[in-house]
Amino acid sequence: MAHDESAFPWEIGVFDAHCHPTDTMASIASIPAMTAATLTVMATRGEDQELVRQTAEAHVDRVMPCFGWHPWFSHQIIDDSIEQPEQDAEQQKRTHYKAVLTPCPEDDEAFIQCLPQPKPLSTLISETRERLLSFPNALVGEIGLDKSFRLPSAWTAEDLDGRNGQVTPGSREGRRLSPYKVKLDHQRTVLKAQLRLAGELARAVSVHSVQAHGAIFELFKELWAGHERVVISRREREKQQDAEGAVSEDEADTTKSATGKQQPFPPRICLHSYSGPVEPLRQFLHKANPSDVYFSFSSVINFTGSSASSRRVSDVIDALPEDRVLVESDLHTAGPQMDELLEQAARQICEIRGWDLRRGVQQLADNWRRFVFG
Hints:
Strand 2 (38-41), helix 1 and strand 3 (63-65) form a beta-alpha-beta unit. The protein is globular, with a radius of gyration of 22 Å. It has one domain: Alpha-Beta Barrel (TIM Barrel), CATH 3.20.20.140. It contains 14 helices and twelve strands. Helix 13 packs across helix 14 (357-373). It has helices at residues 49-58, 89-100, 109-114, 121-134, 157-161, 184-201, 213-224, 234-244, 249-252, 281-284, 299-302, 307-319, 336-353, 357-373, and strands spanning 15-19, 38-41, 63-65, 77-78, 101-102, 119-120, 140-146, 181-182, 205-210, 268-271, 292-297, 325-327. The model is unreliable at 247-259 (pLDDT under 50). By secondary structure, it is α/β, with parallel strands linked by helices. 40% of the residues lie in helices and 12% in strands.
């Protein structure tokens, strides 16, 4: 397929479905000069929640804020819904990290000491609810599961000397990786609480999933149970049409959840920078699912790497319904590079789908609006 060399139609509106410019706050000043219409800006940890809020307040027409706790930092949350032993703060911290990390850092006191005092899950949910209520369309994100991530090692004197003052604290910041991972059950507890909050406030969510698509789907399925859409067969639809006149496909696929009642799951879900195979798409997109599931793609994650992975991404994008595809940068700095990566990804999506640029960019814009606003 020939690559479309046409001028990129920025005037239609290009919407970044997932990015992290508050990781480099010095770049935020460049947002007004960007050609992208709106940035969907993720929060991930304690250090960036208020930065996302401030950025959204300062750039009301250009930033859609998202508030959530990323699985890479889920070890910093303690599940206070279960009874905790009576301990002082230091003992509680030690007990918590030994319980949620694998392998258990039993003899690595220096590593435990470098970790923060864990935040109660109830406090996280309360604070996130308050932030979401400040912005009527804000999303919950970035949240999810990650089976491969390892925590960075404790800070060394050399690490501290080499820190980049332009980078928001709290991330890896170039440190070596430790052997420790966050147990999937604990990640799942933190994710489930945030998904339920998104359901309570009827907000869309942006979900991180690495080597965890099956576990993610099983959690969605648990929350969806009892709220599945009623999928009417073709024969039943034809009978209904004969009795009542023409019924559209959307009208036929009515849902038990469309009752105006609060639901324990988000209405719309985006699996960001989706890197899984084609096969799971069928279960995520099943008509009985009461959440609409979208998939976003970025140049930095999806369109780099081996030819085999590129073919897999192409197969996924080609297999998706046209109204469930989103474009993102997943970049940590706002500005020209973010615009460039959005254009690259949008062009690649259009090429795979066989869309001309204007038609494709319009479709991606319409999809983002529907994902965020419903």
